[in-house]
């Protein structure tokens, strides 16, 4: 096991209302003049207040599903609705883009590339607040920025530092604070804790669970790491080569996987007691 257990794992929170509904999604790319199917016949919903896990090896189509949901990629077939409204691709009107940003936000794996290197955490959050809550006074927005940065645990000194002077975990917290600032219905977390040290990973997962309990928003949590999915996701979808091979309540799918691919993923995942450092020490030549 690479991360500690969080205290919120798999507590039922969802309300039963679907925020996101995806039906029959298909996405192909052209590679070397050949058609390549990245996502094929993928259907799922995300309930209000739930965390849906999307698990699968690299290249299984998880990020493509996220891009389809955000409207960054256009599906070749299928339909996506968010809060009952179809999510068509290629929206150009600023007002519609803003409305969508209030519905869905994404936090990427590498916060460094998605953050503006010239902006501090405070400035990044203020920018989102100005965009979405222009009707609030400057003082109210300042107060809200302070609350958001408090909630992700960035202290006064760090919230005014530039990203280059922060650790990976601290930068990830900026990404989360910025996503939260829009008060979205759904946050997509795409390998959002994968690059972090184990202890920081556990802190960020706990933070996400706490924030979800407070706000009732939904998460789509994308990861190739079964142990982090197990901690946060109520339900899980297992993807392989662009298709869903298994789905269900997270504990049930991981404790009793039915599909050979899920069984293989589980067998390949590090278990409690697995200590890479011990293996390394064992194979290291003895000092003389
Ligand atoms: N713009 C694109 N053009 C061509 N092929 C693409 C494009 N985007 C994704 N693919 C291909 O589609 C497949 C699915 O990619 P995707 O990024 O969705 O997988 P993933 O499960 O998120 O993997 P990872 O965990 O490595 O990000 C991969 O084989 C990828 O190379």
UniProtKB/TrEMBL annotation:
<dbReference type="InterPro" id="IPR003593">
    <property type="entry name" value="AAA+_ATPase"/>
</dbReference>
<dbReference type="InterPro" id="IPR050319">
    <property type="entry name" value="ABC_transp_ATP-bind"/>
</dbReference>
<keyword id="KW-0813">Transport</keyword>
<dbReference type="InterPro" id="IPR027417">
    <property type="entry name" value="P-loop_NTPase"/>
</dbReference>
<dbReference type="InterPro" id="IPR013563">
    <property type="entry name" value="Oligopep_ABC_C"/>
</dbReference>
<dbReference type="InterPro" id="IPR017871">
    <property type="entry name" value="ABC_transporter-like_CS"/>
</dbReference>
<dbReference type="Pfam" id="PF08352">
    <property type="entry name" value="oligo_HPY"/>
</dbReference>
<dbReference type="InterPro" id="IPR003439">
    <property type="entry name" value="ABC_transporter-like_ATP-bd"/>
</dbReference>
<dbReference type="Pfam" id="PF00005">
    <property type="entry name" value="ABC_tran"/>
</dbReference>
<dbReference type="InterPro" id="IPR012700">
    <property type="entry name" value="PhnK"/>
</dbReference>
<comment type="similarity">
    <text>Belongs to the ABC transporter superfamily.</text>
</comment>
<keyword id="KW-0067">ATP-binding</keyword>
<feature type="domain" description="ABC transporter">
    <location>
        <begin position="20"/>
        <end position="266"/>
    </location>
</feature>
<dbReference type="GO" id="GO:0005524">
    <property type="term" value="F:ATP binding"/>
</dbReference>
<keyword id="KW-0547">Nucleotide-binding</keyword>
<protein>
    <submittedName>
        <fullName>Peptide/nickel transport system ATP-binding protein</fullName>
    </submittedName>
</protein>
<feature type="region of interest" description="Disordered">
    <location>
        <begin position="267"/>
        <end position="288"/>
    </location>
</feature>
């Amino acid at each position: 096991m690479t991360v500690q257990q969080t205290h919120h794992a798999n507590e039922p929170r969802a309300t039963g209302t679907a925020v996101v509904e995806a039906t029959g999604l298909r996405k192909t790319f052209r590679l070397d003049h050949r058609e390549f199917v990245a996502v094929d016949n993928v259907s799922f919903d995300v309930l209000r207040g739930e965390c849906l896990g999307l698990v699968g090896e690299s290249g299984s189509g998880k990020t493509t599903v996220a891009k389809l949901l955000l409207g960054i990629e256009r599906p070749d077939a299928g339909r996506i609705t968010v809060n009952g409204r179809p999510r068509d691709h290629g929206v150009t009107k600023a007002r519609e883009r803003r409305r969508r940003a209030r519905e869905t936000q994404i936090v990427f794996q590498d916060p460094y590339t998605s953050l503006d290197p010239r902006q501090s955490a405070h400035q990044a959050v203020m920018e989102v607040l100005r965009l979405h809550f222009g009707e609030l006074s400057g003082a109210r927005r300042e107060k809200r920025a302070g609350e958001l940065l408090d909630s992700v645990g960035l202290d006064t000194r760090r919230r005014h530092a530039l990203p280059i002077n922060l650790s990976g975990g601290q930068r990830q917290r900026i990404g989360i604070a910025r996503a939260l600032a829009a008060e979205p219905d759904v946050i997509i977390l795409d390998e959002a804790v994968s690059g972090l040290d184990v202890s920081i990973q556990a802190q960020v997962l706990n933070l996400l669970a706490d924030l979800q309990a407070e706000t009732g928003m939904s998460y789509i949590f994308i990861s190739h790491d079964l142990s982090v999915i197990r901690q946060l996701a109520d339900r899980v979808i297992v993807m392989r080569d662009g298709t869903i091979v298994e789905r269900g309540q997270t504990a049930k799918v991981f404790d009793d996987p039915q599909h050979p691919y899920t069984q293989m993923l589980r067998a390949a995942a590090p278990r409690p007691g697995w200590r890479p450092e011990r293996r390394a020490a064992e194979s290291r030549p003895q000092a003389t």
